[in-house]
Fold this protein.
Amino acid sequence: MLIGLVGKPSVGKSTFFKAATLAEVEIASYPFTTIKANQGIGYVKIDCIDKEFNTQCMPAHGFCINHNRFVPIDLMDVAGLVSGASEGKGLGNKFLDDLRQADVFIQIVDVSGTTDAEGKITKGYNPCNDVLVLEEELNKWYLNLLMKVWSSFARKAEIEGLNFSEAVAKQFSGLKVNEEHVKRVLLKLNFSEKPSSWKESHLIKFASELRKESKPMIIAANKIDMENGKENYKLLKEKYLDYKIIPCSADSELALREATKANLIKYIPGEKAFEIIGNLNEKQKEALGRIKKDVLEEFEEGTGVQAVLNTAVFNILRYIAIFPASANKLADSKGRILPDCFLLPPRSTALDFAYALHTDFGNNFIKAIDARSKRALGKAYELKHRDALEIVTR
Ligand SMILES: Nc1nc2c(ncn2[C@@H]2O[C@H](COP(=O)(O)OP(=O)(O)O)[C@@H](O)[C@H]2O)c(=O)[nH]1
Ligand SMILES: [Mg+2]
């Protein structure tokens, strides 16, 4: 799964990215994955199941602090988008190309109102604008791609009697569009015309709905620590009722993670407090004090960075975390306890999980066993968040 950070220049995308991926150890432990310069590993946080089994897990990927399990996800920092990107302005198409593979977008918005539409310093800017501009650019991008192929594509699909949703999903699989997305869009739009006779107005609606389905978005109301932050956050919330909007201070999260790394404080990402364990100089004391008072104690979700990632994965994409585990043995062949945790799409089954573990496990599936209840489960069993299962094969 890939999460794309989007937004105009200077809103704090790179700061968010750096804060969320600040654990170089992790990158080193993935020697065979090629991570592009602007891609890194962030984490979603879940209650680890090790506590229920009275043990301490040893993650092969990610980490666990006080039974808070941090499960890796791929994060991408994208160059700033400005109005006109879909026509090639700014980094234009390069920017959009990067976004193809994302499953969900985090739009970073600067709620301080101190950066204009192009990311230059200003005062009293209304950040509500930025959301509109971004939506428009993304819609145009989808529309351009649709227009290029539409007339011949729609006719061909009709003549050959193809399943329309399947054909569209195939045509746009590069954008991670799947059949479900297309079906939901068609249901919603309920056009009476055949696709081959759709007019531009139909295509415009279709493109924007398909964009919303295949690239859902959450908004990080960043720089909430600055003057006017709260007011502008309120404006955003009032205007965009359909979006999940989370107050955020990427800068504060970065400072907290850096202080943690330097052994100055103990801080678990997402928490509302930290403990001082090192010798702080006056400047550090002052900075951390400000973060404590203006951010951590002020907002329900602390700095918001962890909440944004968790909400994107578990509430927007509705993914679930599944642990491979057997009732009698929680360790793998190397003696590591509960080393793995998989993130799977909603409505995944026991068989899907088997395939996620290994193709052979899928092909030779006999049953799954719930590590908690020791009950046997069939192929079609629908997985629940934090299930712990063993797959029994032939
Ligand atoms: N006060 C404050 N400043 C921030 C925050 N996040 C980022 N910044 C600052 O905003 C500026 C632009 O950040 P950057 O991450 O480079 O933005 P990008 O162009 O979107 O990648 C930098 O000076 C950051 O230090 C925040 O949460 N609070
Ligand atoms: Mg940047």
